[in-house]
Amino acid sequence: MDYGFAPHKNATRPTADIENDGWFPVLKLAEFADIYGIAAELSDAQLEHCLLLAMDRANQSLAKFKAAQVAQGIERLVDVPAGQLGGKSAAVGNYKRAAYSMAKADLLRESISMDRKADAENAANSAVEMVDFYERQATRALANLQGMAAVGVHLI
């Protein structure tokens, strides 16, 4: 299993939208695979499954934030006044980072349990470190989106 950061250009992923709840943005399997360097041998079904679960976790984590925004008349995450970066919504960028990082961590976690090679222990140690990295990235993105510090004690 390749744990690298480089995208695998030999894989063609579907470009169709993965629908969200209407308030949070749609995500794309191809974008996830390209940005997060997903190995070509992983199936689209496996990626979509992990991405849907990650979207659900991100949505649940942001439920109170969403409710507060809706109460202020904001109809979609893209409309949250969080600024623009490169002509794109910073709020949407943070949401995508959170969901994609959660999905990548899940994929890495699954590959740890499936790797039975002789050097699996070394690979598992490296993969565990990467899982921790992606989980921290997701936490930081969720905190940024809500205007909170990534480290601290918060009621969830």
Spell out the blueprint of helices and strands.
Layout: E1 17-18, E2 27-28, H1 29-35, H2 44-61, H3 63-71, E3 84-85, E4 88-89, H4 90-114, H5 120-146
Antiparallel strand pairs: 1-2, 3-4
Helix pairs in contact: 2-4, 4-5
Describe the structure.
By secondary structure, the chain is mainly alpha-helical. Helices cover 55% and strands 5% of the residues. It contains five helices and four strands; from the N terminus they run E-E-H-H-H-E-E-H-H. The protein has helices at residues 29-35, 44-61, 63-71, 90-114, 120-146, and strands at 17-18, 27-28, 84-85, 88-89. It has a two-stranded antiparallel sheet with strand order 1-2. The protein has a two-stranded antiparallel ribbon with strand order 3-4. Strand 1 and strand 2 (27-28) form a beta hairpin. Helix 2 crosses helix 4 (90-114). The longest helix is centred in the C-terminal third of the chain and has 27 residues, at 120-146. The radius of gyration is 16 Å and the shape is globular.
